[in-house]
Structures are given as C-alpha cells and as structure tokens.
Design a protein that fits this description.
The complex is a heterodimer of chains A (306) and B (337). Chain A has a single domain (25-50, 83-305), classed as MetI-like fold (Orthogonal Bundle), CATH 1.10.3720.10. Helices cover 69% and strands 0% of the residues of chain A. In chain A, helix 8 runs antiparallel to helix 9, helix 10 (220-243) runs parallel beside helix 11 and helix 11 packs antiparallel against helix 12 (271-298). Chain A has helices at 18-28, 30-52, 84-119, 121-136, 139-158, 160-174, 178-191, 195-202, 207-215, 220-243, 255-262, 271-298. Chain A has 12 helices and no strands. The longest helix of chain A has 36 residues, at 84-119. Chain B has 337 residues and is mainly α. Chain B has 2 domains: 2-89, no CATH class; 106-330, MetI-like fold, CATH 1.10.3720. Chain B is built from 11 helices and no strands. The longest helix of chain B has 39 residues, at 246-284. Classes of the chains: A mainly alpha (306), B mainly alpha (337).
C-alpha cells in the first residue's frame, strides 16, 4: 500500500515577492503601460532607426532646401537641405543619452548623500545644509552661465561633442540630486530603526555591510521613482538649454537644438519644430506616466488586496 | 513664531553668503576676457586701461569682497537714496554696479525690465492659480469621473510638454496660420486709448495662456491630491453627519484645509516666475528680466549676470521662509519652537 500524498496545488499566490507585486500593480495602471510601450518604441526608433535610415544628418543638399515632408524626405529638410528625419533620429540618441546619464549622476549623488546622511548622524547636519544650499541655487541661470563660460575650455580638452556632452550631463546631474537625497534620507531614518537592522547589527555585521546590503535594497523604490522624474527633468533641461542656444553646438543635432534652429523658419517649414517638439513631449510624457504608475504600484495603501 | 522667523532669517544669511560666493566664483574663475568683445582696433594700452577700470586683474578674494560690499552695502543705500531723493552720502553718492554693456547701473536696467516680466509671467501665474484650484477641487470631489480623468490627463500633458514647444505651437497656429495674434511682443506699445489697449491684450494672450496652462497643470495636481487627503478625514464625516450642506462641507471645510499645503507650494513657486521668464521671454520676444539675463550671458556682461542670478537666489531663499511661515500661520497643528 502506498500513500499518495497529493502535492499542494501550485497557485499564483505561492510565490510573492515585493517586485512581482509591484510589477502586477504597475501593469494595471493603463497610463503607465501605454507610457512604457511608447518609451521603448521611441528608444528602439532612435537606436535602430539610423541603421536602416542611413542618410547622414550632416549631408547638405542646396537643391532641396526647406522641403516640406514628402516621400523622399519624410520629415522635410532644413534651410541647408539636411534631412530632418535623420537629424531627429540622431538627435534623439543624444537627447536620450543626456537624459539617462544625467539621471544616473543625479541618482548616484542623491542616493549616496541620502544614505550617508540618514545613516550617519554626525554627517547628517552638514550634508543636509549642503542639500538646502543646492536647493537655493537658481538652477537655470547658473547652468546657462556655466555652459557659456566653460564650454570652449572643455571643447578644447575633450573634443566638440564629448566635451559639451560631459559638461551638460555633469551640471544637470550635479544640480538635480537634492530631491532624491531628501527622500532617501527620510526612508533610511525610518528603516534603520527596524528590527532586522538591529538583528544584523547584533549578528556582528559591519556598518558598511548593513548600509549597502540591508538598507539600500529597502530604499530602492523611492530611488526608482526619482529615476523617472530625474530623466524627465534632465531631458527637458537639456532641450531648454539648447532652445536658448546654449546647449550642443549647431553641428550636433539634439531635439532641443533642432527646435531652436527651426523656430526662425516657422512660416516656411512649420513641421521643422513640430517633430522634435513631439519627440521631447512624448518621451517626457511617457516617462512621467511610468513614474506615476510606479509610485502608485509602490504605495502599499493603494495596492489592491489579494 | 516670531522667534522662529528671526532664526530662519539668521540661517538664511550664511546660505546667501555661500551662494553669492559660488555665483561669484563661477563667473570670475571662468576663462574669457571682458575686453574680448571690444573692437580689435583699440590699442593694447587703452585695452589695459579698460581692464584696470573694470578691476579685472585684482586678486580673487579682493574682487569678491569688493563685489559683496558693493552689492550688500552700496547698492541698497543708493537705491534707497534714489527712491527717497534724500542724499545721505553727499552729492556724488556711492559707486553703482554698472553693466559692462550699457555702462548704466544694473538696478536701472532691472527696473526697466521688471514691469514686462511681472505683467506677462506674473499674470500667468495668477491665472494658473485661478484655473488650478477649481479644477483640482472638482477632480478630487468627483474622483475617477470623466472630468477627473480628462483633467488629470490634461494636467499631465501640461507639465510634460515644455513651454517652449507649446509656445511655438501657439505661434504656429494663431500667428502663422490664423493670423489672429502677433507673434512678437511689442514692448514699446504704450496703452493710452482703447485700440492700443486691445493690441496690448492681444499680444499678451499667447504668452500668458501658454504659461498659465503650464502653471495650472502643476498646481492642479497638488490641489487634487491635497483635496483627496482631506476628503477621507474624519472631520468631513462629522461635518456631514451634523447635517451641513454638502457645499459648505466641501468649500468651507475641505477646501480651506486643502489649501494649506497648496499655499506653500504657490509661495515656493514664485521665484520660478522669474526663472521661467528666461524661456518664455525668448519664445515671445518679451524684453523682460529673463531676456536681460540671456543678453548679459551672450555678451559676457558679468556684473549684470551676477546681479540677476544672485537676486534669483535671494528670491528662492526668501520665499522658502515665506512658505514655512505661511504654513505655520495657516495650520494651527504646526508650531515652530
């Protein structure tokens, strides 16, 4: 006689991790899903687009200046006969790269400052004063001034494209980390009083280990939300700088730059400002929607039961 | 409360000193020569004299201290003297901060440009508030209704789409295609009779609407979430159960309490009127403070740029204190001690 023990039926509730829950909640947010799809489509478009659409954005054709969109030039051409679709695709690469890298810098600084000042009460005071100080800096004027004054120097050292990219990414990142730092610090202050931290400490874990292995994973969710917001701000800031003529040089197309140069040709080729503007708006909109969905998904008060 | 404010102001002073130092350092340590834009025909000796008169070659700390004395002591006294026409410092008065472009006092330039900025950008802020509050209230009260869903989507759209794009779209539509509104803001226009007044209104419509839309989009989100926080509070149920009319519950009780955080957000946003002006004024070619700053940057007019940037910093610090004070004043639960 053998006893057959029925295996417990696997149900979807067996394995529940925080991130799986968050993901399930995230995909219920319609805006967030649409935003995510749109965002990845735009990324695919600008990353792989130039491989298939091989016309160079720098190639001038004086016979085909200021063309309206047509089969030959899907987005039209500018006043030098450069193809605008190519410019928008290449520009998107730079604009998105600026957004991602500046966001990463700001996240890195914000997270480190937040972690350290939340965890180490001796450094807390000074770090928070510095954060307040950065909050009080007039951001846009300062960015404009720094770019105006230092771009030639960096250009000389790192080359025209890399130099200005470094400068823009650094100053946007280094002036936008404060919100992340505050949120992370608040969470660390709450989490370090929890029992598992005391337990880790009682087991003899070093402070460093506690900070990186036990506290950091628990503050990842506010960091993720800041990441979406930071990316949106960085892209808007870069295009605003370019729009004021103080971003990338004119031979490097970015969405903001194309907009800036197109604004004087509104009467001749109106679509020239519409394309880059649409791209910027769609990216920022989709990132913001993703951020909204993420925030809702990470908020346990809003999470549906079951 | 009073003590708290005094303490806040005292803390603000070192903050401002450090910021002034940062702004000064960024501008002063930069490569570039203020005489670089002068015509090449100027002989080197004269160029040297120009540099000397501008004080370019002084040591860094001396330059900073000179600038700080100028900015914190001389300039305020001179402005008070100008305003009251009382000469405290004798006939000549103190030296002023002079723009390198126009050789006139920076404060005079600011006074000339301030009205345009306040009219266009300030007005749009006021309109933004006036739109945002009712939209936020209705959105929260009828949460998940069609109005709420459309309102939330439009406000998301409003603060995601940058103003320099909405502005250009508006110009494209209303100036280029329909030819209803002028695309360039004419600041020489003097309002003296009805037709000129109509023209003034017409040229203000686009910049004010574009910026008001952006401001309303941001504020209405705060208003909505603040209303939602309050609507689920116990005091709302109490108010309803004691038989108050719904209108009084919502407008008298919930709205009043929901406005507390929104008022502080509004106060915190006031400095952004001026920083936001930098972009708006470029789109519509309004010659306000933002335009002055951009021109100053293009022409490396360091005193002008330093002054404007630092005034922005003062405004940010000031309205931070105002927001905290307003919060303590409006919310009896908050007591600063």
């Amino acid at each position: 006689m053998s006893v057959v023990i029925a295996k417990p039926k696997k149900t979807s509730t067996d394995y529940r991790s925080q991130w799986l829950d968050t993901w399930k909640q995230f995909v219920k947010h319609k805006g967030a899903v649409v935003g995510m799809v749109m965002f990845f489509l735009i990324i695919l478009l600008v990353v792989f687009g130039p491989m298939f659409y091989t016309i160079s954005p720098a190639e001038t054709n004086l016979r085909a200046r200021n063309q309206l969109p047509s089969l030959e030039y899907p987005f039209g051409t500018d006043n030098l006969g450069r193809d605008l679709l190519a410019a928008n695709l290449h520009g998107g690469r730079i604009s998105l790269a600026v957004g991602v890298v500046a966001m990463l810098i700001s996240l890195l600084v914000g997270t480190v400052v937040g972690l350290v000042s939340g965890f180490n009460s001796r450094l807390d005071g000074i770090l928070m004063r510095i954060t307040d100080l950065f909050f009080a800096l007039p951001r846009l004027p300062l960015l404009l001034v720094i770019i105006m004054l230092y771009r030639d120097k960096l250009r000389a050292v790192f080359g025209p494209e890399a130099g200005i990219f470094l400068l823009i990414v650094l100053i946007i990142g280094l002036t936008s980390w404060m919100q992340t730092a505050r949120v992370v610090r608040g969470d660390v202050l709450a989490i370090k009083e929890r029992e598992f931290v005391t337990a880790a400490s009682a087991l003899g874990s070093q402070n460093n280990r506690i900070l990186w292995l036990h506290i950091l994973p628990n503050v990842l969710s506010p960091i993720l939300v800041s990441a979406t917001l930071g990316m949106a701000t960085a892209i808007i800031t870069e295009s605003a700088l370019s729009f004021l003529g103080l971003g990338f040089p004119s031979d490097v197309p970015t969405w903001g730059r194309i907009l800036f140069e197109g604004k004087d040709y509104l009467t001749i080729t109106p679509m020239r400002v519409v394309w880059p503007g649409l791209f910027i708006s769609l990216v920022v909109l989709s990132v913001n929607f993703m951020g909204d969905g993420l925030r809702d998904a990470l908020d346990p008060r809003l999470r549906s039961k079951g | 409360m009073f003590q708290y404010l005094i303490r806040r102001v005292l803390i603000a002073i070192p903050t401002l000193v450090v910021i002034s130092f940062i702004i000064f350092a960024v501008l002063d340590l930069a490569p570039g020569d203020p005489t670089g834009n002068l015509p090449l025909t100027i002989p080197p000796e004269v160029r040297e004299l120009v540099r000397k008169s501008l004080g370019v070659d002084d040591p860094f700390v001396i330059k900073y201290l000179k600038w700080a004395r100028q900015f914190f002591i001389y300039e305020p006294i001179s402005i008070i003297e100008d305003a009251t026409q009382i000469k405290l410092t004798g006939e000549a008065g103190f030296p002023r901060i002079l723009s390198w472009q126009t050789r006139s006092p920076v404060s005079d330039l600011l006074w000339q440009r301030l009205p345009q900025t306040l009219w266009v950008v300030g007005l749009s802020y006021v309109f933004g508030i006036l739109i945002a509050i009712p939209v936020g209230v209705v959105s929260a009260y009828r949460q998940y209704s069609i109005f709420d869903q459309i309102g939330t989507f439009i406000s998301m759209l409003g603060f995601s789409v940058p103003t320099f794009f909405t502005g250009l779209l508006a110009i494209l539509l209303f100036s280029v295609q329909l030819k209803w509104l002028p695309s360039i803001y004419d600041t020489t226009l003097v309002v003296k009779d009805w037709p000129s007044f109509v023209l003034q209104v017409k040229q203000m419509i686009m910049p004010v609407t574009v910026l008001a839309f952006f401001n309303a989009a941001q504020l209405s989100r705060f208003m909505r979430s603040s209303m939602l926080d309050n609507l689920s509070q116990d005091y709302v149920r109490t108010a309803r159960s004691k038989g108050l009319v719904e209108r009084i519950v919502v407008l008298g009780h919930v709205l009043r309490n929901s406005l507390i955080p929104v008022v502080t957000i509004i106060a915190l946003g006031i400095p952004s009127i001026f920083t936001g002006a930098i972009i708006t004024e470029q789109i519509f070619r309004v010659n306000g403070i933002g335009d002055l700053l951009i021109r100053g940057i293009y022409n490396s007019d360091i005193p002008l740029v330093q002054t404007i940037t630092f005034i922005f910093a003062i405004l940010i610090v000031l309205f931070n204190i105002v927001a905290d004070a307003a919060y303590g004043f409006l919310d009896p639960r908050i007591r600063y001690n």
